[in-house]
Design a protein that fits this description.
The chain has six helices and seven strands, in the order βαβαβαβαβαββα. It is an alpha/beta fold.
């Protein structure tokens, strides 16, 4: 089967690009059917346009509650009939108003090991902890988002990254992004293989 993916982003979209490239190369049996961003200026939307994928700026309205925004987003995403919703640098916490529409189908990428550094700036926080001598490694994980917990859902894929002596934050961050691109595509491949008969959402 060719899985239908909707990808949610907030920024540069390098992980989106990894997905688009894998789809184009045929290594990922999927098609990105839409890309949404809560940030209209996000470069990831331009990446989607260049790939011929609908690129949808979806900012929060003035005075709109989180739940109302998520309900409106869920309606828009549902219209593309996704098999999976991929959070690839999506920087908003989703409520059950959204997650409840796609049970066991929302997949998130987080640049830390399970149970460590949830939330924003995980790379910087891990690097600072290493400099303090508290840890010797960090990593990347891909996990399901079944509820409103922050980076705490069932783990689908994980890869450790050991710090290197005298490594700069920039060098470490570059290695993290390399692992993100590879692990995200690999994990989506595995999900599709396990769930070849997944239904479309209505």
């Amino acid at each position: 089967m060719t899985a239908r993916l909707v990808v949610l982003i907030s920024g540069n979209g390098s992980n989106l690009q990894a997905i688009l490239d894998a789809c184009a190369e045929g290594t990922l049996p999927a098609r990105v059917v839409a890309v949404f961003s809560n940030k209209p200026e996000a470069f990831g939307l331009e990446r989607a346009r260049r790939a011929g994928v609908p690129a949808i700026a979806f900012p929060k309205r003035d005075g709109e509650s989180r739940a109302d925004y998520d309900l409106r987003l869920a309606e828009a995403v549902t219209s593309f009939r996704p098999d999976y919703v991929i959070l690839a640098g999506w920087m908003r916490l989703l409520t059950m108003a959204f997650l409840g529409r796609f049970p066991q189908r929302v997949v998130n990428l987080h640049p830390a090991l399970p149970g460590t550094f949830p939330g924003v700036h995980a790379i910087e926080r891990a690097y600072a902890a290493w400099q303090r001598g508290e840890i010797d490694r960090s990593g990347v994980m891909v996990h399901l988002v079944p509820d409103e917990g922050v980076d705490s859902g069932p783990v689908l894929g994980v890869e450790e990254i050991r710090f290197r002596p005298a490594e700069t934050l920039e060098a470490f961050e570059a290695r993290v992004h390399e692992v993100e691109h590879r692990l995200l595509v690999k994990t989506i491949q595995e999900i599709i293989a396990k769930d070849a008969n997944c239904p479309n959402f209505s």
